[in-house]
Structure formats: structure tokens, C-alpha cells
Amino acid sequence: MALHENQPPGKVAVVTGASSGLGAELARELSRQGWSVGLIARREDRLVTLADEIRHAGGRTAIAVADVSDKAMLLAAFDSIRGELGAVDLLLANAGVGKPDFLDPFTVDDIEQMIRVNLLGVLYSIAAVLPQMIEQRRGHIAAVSSAGAYKGMPGSAGYCASKSAVNTLLEGLRIQLREYGVSVTTICPGFMRTDMTDANSFRMPWLQEPDAAARKIVRALHRRKKVYNFPWQMAPLIKLLRWLPDWLIARTLPRKSDVGGNDEL
What we know:
single chain, alpha/beta, 7-stranded parallel beta sheet, globular, disordered C terminus
């Protein structure tokens, strides 16, 4: 069943990448609205702290440690959470990673990691809940993509490619799952204050706080949005960037070094 206003207790949501940032705020917001929340991430200590906070506030939760890029480990994590909370009604595939691209040396390993986490992590999460949702003919699948999905940007080509693939995957599934009563929502935020973006040295327009972003996302899920792009100011900017010539983008955007390094987005 898709998310509705005044959701009664007993419905189960699972959030991946729940140990910090947007994932943790989504878990808090869903719990405040009466959802039982399964928490999946790699950092067990942070999951335990968040789970204790949710329980102290009267919520119901379960945790499972997993790397979303490890299919067997992730499927086992979903099985563990189902064993404690019951069948999953809402999936929020939030786990993601971002790293810059460098040309010398070409950072193939970093791009591979982004594809494993950002794309395959979403795919494996969907695989963990889809059979049950199809059988019950209800459910809601949502994944956090990015405004970067709409334009391949210099220095972030690998990240943009991984998120663009998520958008395409969810678009096809959304159409295919209509007859089964399963809703699909693609979430495309702009810049958000997280551990990853804290390392950015360039200006990030319309930077959002994770708690405010989580509230917006949950409201969008209430409305069963197919695609949710926010903040609203990013939409015209992305449309403009898609039509600008390459030479102008290369000239006007802040230049990143093409020499390899270790900074994350």
C-alpha cells in the first residue's frame, strides 16, 4: 500500500543508508508518523544509536548491518528485518555514495563503486521486497536519486551516470508495476548537507538540511508522486544545463583538477 496521510501503526518501512544524513532523518520522520522502521546500513554503532532514539520516542524499529552493494548480505538483512517487523510496505532505497572523477589516473575503481552502491544497491533492495509486494498486490518502492541524474557533469560523470540509471530503472518498473498495485517514486534532490557534501569546496546553491528534506520527501510520498524533484529552483536550472553547449558549460563551471585525489563530493 502506498503511503497515506494518517497512516495507522503497524505498517513497515525499510530505509537503507539509515545510519546518518538523509536516511536517518527519513527513519525519524516515518517513525513519528506511526511507521515501524527497519534500518539498514554498514555502521552498526550508528544504527544502534538511532534505533535507541526511535524506541525511546515510542517507535518500533529493527536494525540490520549490510553493504547494499553485497546482494547476499543485503537480502539477508531484509529477511532479518521482516522476521522482526513483518512484511515491508514501503522501501526507501536511500544508500548512496559520491566521488569526483579524475582523468590522470582515470578513477575507474571509484566509478565502479558508485555504480555498485547507487545503482545495484537500489536494484538489490527492490529485489528483496518485490516478490512479496507483487504477491500481495500492494506496496510502495522509492529510491533517492539526484538532480545530477539529468545531466552528465564534468568531474561527476560517474556519479551522474549511476543516478541516471536509477531514474531509468524506476521509470520502467513504475509503468510495469501499475497492474500489481505497487507504486514507484523517484526522488531527485539537489544539494544537501551530508558527510559527503561537507567536503565540497565549491558553492552549492539551495543547500538543504536533511531533516527538512526528509519532511518534503515524506509529503511527496503521501501524494504518490512519480518523480519528486526538489528544491523547485533546481528544475529550471537543470533544464537550462541540458540545453547549454558543452563549451559554455566547460567555461562557466568551477574547474576541478583532472589529477587524481581522495576528496569525496
